[in-house]
Design brief:
The protein is of the alpha/beta class. It folds into 2 domains: about 220 residues, Enolpyruvate transferase domain (UDP-n-acetylglucosamine1-carboxyvinyl-transferase, Chain, Alpha-beta prism), CATH 3.65.10; about 200 residues, UDP-n-acetylglucosamine1-carboxyvinyl-transferase, Chain (Alpha-beta prism), CATH 3.65.10. It contains 14 helices and 23 strands. The longest helix is centred in the middle third of the chain and has 13 residues. The two termini are about 25 Å apart. The protein binds shikimate-3-phosphate (S3P). Shikimate-3-phosphate (S3P) binds next to helix 3 and helix 7. The site of shikimate-3-phosphate has 12 residues, from helix 3 and helix 7.
């Protein structure tokens, strides 16, 4: 299937409700499955990745009742109440499902085997298998313990706590180690080169588990049981809001309001960079809900200019690089991205994908350089056929590029169901309003 997106004439105006945060939705379901009382989750992200987590926790014995698409009740049987699944667990396209659950399952007394889709089968898993094995976990995977399929077998004895220096900042790896650390003997400390998103630490706190943070190090102590909150309200996903933040910034005459967006400081790198580029937005009604900061964001079009961003800010905006590249293309001057090697191991190699597809729409606009790229802002943009690489964030970024540029014919557009199933309806809705 291909989707045609026309150039959008005139500004985007109105209010766009943003779906629930993907990272927080995953964790809300997983942690509730380890509690011993029902947890009502609201504004849950009803998209394929989070539904993969739901399917896995059900197979592991938790009860899940959907009250609507975005509201569900998850009831676990306690920290030691998971049961051996009857079949192979399928994490689909979701690295978060797989990597966090490996941490939960490493200390269990039963065997679990995981698989996933073609993209997840290519993604590196040694980064989780290695530290968990150092704690005493028994995990084997294809290609010398590096890839799916992966089997997590019962450990010979209780896992041991440790201090682990992570070579790259990754919330998924950090979370897997902390979750395994709850079941370990002694304390477990994870040290990152830069701070990654801290949703695990915040949500564990809501479940009565304290972690200690010191610089880029997080420590967890053995945990007897979780004390689940009655309710978790998931804020809107800033990674999904990012498409509209950039679209409204670069399409002249735009003025949109994005209510209830999560603005946890470990996720707001996109706001810092857009501000630096001259974007015109403001955070309204700033509040805290369930330990997470949220705000309404009003964004208006403005003239952007190029900037540079490097390794330190990368974990705070890692998923937003493709859409930031769109902002950079419509900005004046060059934008230089460095320290972004992690983009090569996302749902696709996003440095390569951005370079290939942007250059089809705007020849000569992007040069890949080592672990980064240079985007030459202001290069002419034409209509062209591009592909999504079955990567949801590439598909949405290319759709916005087409809407802001001169249109695009997008191959494999369906992958937006991974994180934002309503994305095209919203985009098409702006067209309907114009008619
Ligand atoms: C996530 C962490 C990030 C991010 C992913 C979600 C999480 O991955 O890219 O979309 O929920 O912990 P890494 O931990 O690999 O950086």
């Amino acid at each position: 299937m291909k989707k045609e997106i026309q150039r959008f004439h005139g500004g985007l105006r109105g209010e766009i409700s943003i779906p629930g945060d993907k990272s927080i939705s995953h964790r809300s379901v997983m942690f509730s499955a380890l509690g011993d009382a029902p947890v009502r989750i609201t504004n849950f992200l009803h998209a394929q990745d989070c539904l993969s987590t739901v399917a896995c926790v059900k197979a592991l014995g938790a009860e899940v009742e959907f009250l609507s698409d975005t509201e569900l009740i998850v009831t676990g049987h306690g920290l030691h109440g998971l049961k051996e699944p009857e079949g192979i667990l399928d994490a689909g396209n979701s690295g978060t499902t797989l990597r966090l659950l490996m941490g939960v399952l490493a200390p269990q007394s039963f065997l679990t085997t995981f698989t996933g889709d073609a993209s997840l089968c290519r993604r590196p898993m040694a980064r989780v298998i290695k530290p968990l094995s150092l704690m005493g976990a028994r995990i084997v995977g294809r290609g010398g313990n590096r890839f799916l399929p992966i089997t997590v077998a019962p450990a010979e004895k209780k896992l041991s706590g440790m201090v682990y220096d992570m070579p790259v900042a990754s919330a998924q790896v950090k979370s897997a180690i902390l979750l395994a650390g709850m079941y370990a003997e002694g304390e477990t400390t994870v040290v990152e080169p830069f701070a990654s998103r801290d949703h695990t630490e915040r949500m564990l706190e809501a479940f009565g588990v304290r972690t200690q943070k010191k610089g880029f190090a997080v420590t967890i102590h053995p945990v007897e049981e979780l004390h689940p909150p009655k309710e978790i309200e998931v804020p809107g996903d800033i990674s999904s809001a990012a498409y509209w933040l950039v679209a409204a910034s670069v399409i002249p005459g735009s003025d949109i309001l994005l209510p209830n967006v999560g603005v946890n400081p470990t996720r707001t790198g996109i706001l810092d960079v857009l501000k630096d580029m001259g974007a015109d937005f403001e955070l309204l009604h700033q509040r805290t809900s369930g330990g997470e900061a949220a705000a309404d964001i009003r964004v208006r079009s403005s003239k952007l200019h190029g900037t540079s961003l490097g390794a330190e800010i990368m974990p705070r905006l890692i998923d937003e690089i493709p859409i930031l590249a769109v902002a950079a293309l419509f900005a004046e001057g060059d934008t230089v991205v460095t320290g972004a090697g992690e983009l090569r191991v996302k749902e696709t190699d996003r440095l390569q994908a951005v370079t290939n597809e942007f250059n089809k729409l705007s020849p000569g606009s992007v040069e890949a350089a080592g672990d980064g790229m240079v985007i030459h802002g202001g290069c002419p943009v034409k209509k062209a056929e591009v592909i999504s690489y079955d990567d949801h964030r590439m598909a949405m970024s290319l759709a916005i590029l087409g809407a802001a540029g001169n249109g695009v014919l997008l191959g494999n557009p369906e992958c937006v169901h991974i994180s934002y199933p309503e994305f095209y309806d919203i985009l098409d809705g702006f067209w309907e309003e114009k008619r």
